[in-house]
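Session log. Operator J.P. requested a structure for one protein chain; no other inputs attached. Running the standard single-chain path with C-alpha cell output.
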Amino acid sequence: MKKILLGCALLLSGLTFAQGHETFDNLATTGNSYGNGSFIGQNGVEWTYGQCRGDIELNGKAITLGRNRAEPQFLESALIPGGIGTLEFSYMQAFSNDVHMEVYVNDDLIYTATTNDELEVIKSSGSITVEVAGDFVLKFVNPGNVGQVTLDDIIWTDHDATVGIEDNLVTGFSYFPNPANNIVNIQANQPISNVVAYNLLGQTVLNNNFSNGQVDISTLTSGAYIFKVTFENGADKTFKIIKQ
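Structure written below.
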C-alpha cells in the first residue's frame, strides 16, 4: 500500500511539488523493543534512528520514537541535496503521555509537534514553510520524558527561489481542521474560484464543492486527500487533508 502512496506522491508532483516522501516501508525493525539502527528510504535517503520501534502503524508502516530512554530518541536523515521548500508529516500520540517532538533542519528548530491528551489521534503538521537552499538534514527529536510519538508520511518539497511571489497574490490563507470529519474550512483574503480534491491515485473526488468558505467532505472515505484551491487572480494553493 505504501508503495502505491509513493507512486501517487510522484503522480501528484505537479500539484504538490513533492520532492521526497518517506513512508517507512523499508524500515525493517519490528516488535515493541526500542533500538538503534538505519535504513534506506524511498528516495534513496539513509535514515538513522535512536531508541525507536516499528510495531505501531499510522498510515501503514511507521516509526515510533521512545520516551525517557538512556540514549537519545531521534530520527535523522543523511544529507539530502536540492534544498527544501516545505515539510509536512503525520504523527500520533502513541501512549498516555503528551507529545512534544522537535523538528530540525540543519540543526535549526523549525517546528514542535504537540498533543493534548489525544491518544491515538492521527494529526498532521500541515505544510511547514522552511525554504532552505542547498543540502539539508532533517532531524526529529523526542526530548527527555515527553510522550512516545509515532511518525509517518514525511513529505518535503524543493526549495523555491521565487518563494513569496505567489504568496503576495494570496494573503490570509488558512485551512482547518486537519484531520477533519465532515467539513474543511478554507479562508483567504482573495476570492476563491474553484476547489478540487484528489485521492492518492490522482483521481478527482470532489470538484467545486465549495460554498460559504467550506468544503463538504462527508462523502469521502477515511484517508489522505490533496486539495487544490484556485483563486480568481490566477494563484493557487495545495495542501493535504486527513479525512477521519
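Operator note: The chain is about 5% helix and 45% strand.
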